[in-house]
Amino acid sequence: MRIIDIREKTASIASPIANAYIDFSKMTCSVVAVVTDVIRDGKPVIGYGFNSNGRYGQGALMRDRFINRVLEADPESLIDRENDNLDPFAIWKTLMTNEKPGGHGERSVAVGTIDMAVWDAVAKIAGVPLWKLLADRYRGGVADKKVWVYAAGGYYYPGKDHKQLQDEMRSYLDRGYKVVKMKIGAASLDEDLRRIDAVLDVVGDGQYLAVDANGRFDLETAVAYAKALRPYGLFWYEEAGDPLDYALQAELANHYERPMATGENLFSHQDARNLLRHGGMRPDRDWVQFDCALSYGLVEYFRTLDVMKGLGWSSRRVVPHGGHQMSLNIAAGLHLGGNESYPDVFQPFGGFADGIAVEDGYVGLPEIPGVGFEEKSALIKVMREVAA
Ligand SMILES: O=C([O-])CC(=O)C(=O)O
Ligand SMILES: [Mg+2]
Fold it and tell me: Is the CB of 54 under 6 A from ligand 1?
């Protein structure tokens, strides 16, 4: 059993939407295929992965060093004998040969994307959905049968008025979501409050609305927003300040007793540990959003979950960023608190299996082997082109 090839293509996910920090007019992502010599149903098993939005495609890094390390390794060293499968932990170690600690920049995205494809292949070789494989191996066989999801959108968009924002949010509710998320911080506080009021007219109550500032605010602005947001009783207030400014986050906690969320731009278990040690995040109410696709993959995610446990955090406080099926599998198999969803943006990468509807804010899991990409027809089409 061996990996024959690892292929990457950079796909466009460009659109005119913007958050408080960036627009997505040139956004790309890497799509990866890990081709194996294992035959299932008469065809070679191919694992797929992609990196979630926000970081660009990583093909150059992959081709410069990561892919070759795996292809040049002794295939025997990458095998999990106990399970007669590929060994994602050994493959991860090989990917990270001669990489110094710290400075998690873009390589964590390259490794995270390849790691996703490796786990897809592992679950396909085992012939089970990834969520089931994870629950069987690591959680005593108990998987969540459905996962809480919220609809992320509410972007700034040229010419988008309150009515369009309301229509967007209403369409999420119509599709079974209960909690929605919108962007803040690219307009004045006054205008953002009017946008929030408009959305609340649709979703009904602050508990059904999360807001995301994408790291835009300095401390003064973060606190001014906190004071204005407090009376709304929102679901969460996300990434108020710079993702690495733990002192800002800790100070914000002194001005905002409602739930805060952050973590999508922390790319290692060491950074996650720093946030939980120094960022004033409260395990009884706050949320962390580490995204395996951006942060060295599931192998590293196990370490992050261990760090959380050691610092008194339940895995139920994690709701990963990224709206992808990999995190959906991890959420169900490893008992996270839920998952982000992009019902409309970042297509075909956002959203879940075609045939599984969201009901009452929860989504079910695909029953096919692997991550479930084959049940999202527009996505698997793009992935198969990478493998061809
Ligand atoms: O707009 C983005 O960069 C995505 C984001 O923050 C999120 O989904 O929470
Ligand atoms: Mg965010």
Answer: yes
Could you please state the CATH topology (level 3) that the domain comprising 137-376 is classified under: TIM Barrel (3.20.20)
Query: Which residue matches tokens 């946030």?
Result: 275
Measured over all CA atoms, what is the biggest interatomic distance in the chain, rounded to whole angstroms?
Answer: 61
pLDDT of residue 108: 98
Where do the CATH 3.20.20.120 domains begin and end in the chain?
Answer: 137-376
- If one residue of 214, 287, 318 were mutated to test the ligand 1 pocket, choosing by the most ligand atoms within 8 A of its CB, it would be 214
| Structure confidence at residue 105 (pLDDT) | 84
ipTM: 0.99
Question: Which residue spans of the chain are classified as CATH 3.30.390.10?
Answer: 3-127
What CA–CA distance (Å, rounded) separates 304 from 13?
A: 28
Distance CA 140, CA 313 (A): 20
Mean pLDDT of the 163-179 span: 98
pLDDT in tens, 321-352: 999 999 999 999 999 999 999 999 999 999 89
Active site residues: 183, 321
Architecture of the domain made up of 3-127: 2-Layer Sandwich (3.30)
Report the Cα–Cα distance between both ends of the chain, in Å, rounded. Answer: 20
Best residue among 264, 342, 346 to mutate for probing ligand 1, ranked by most atoms within 8 Å of CB: 264
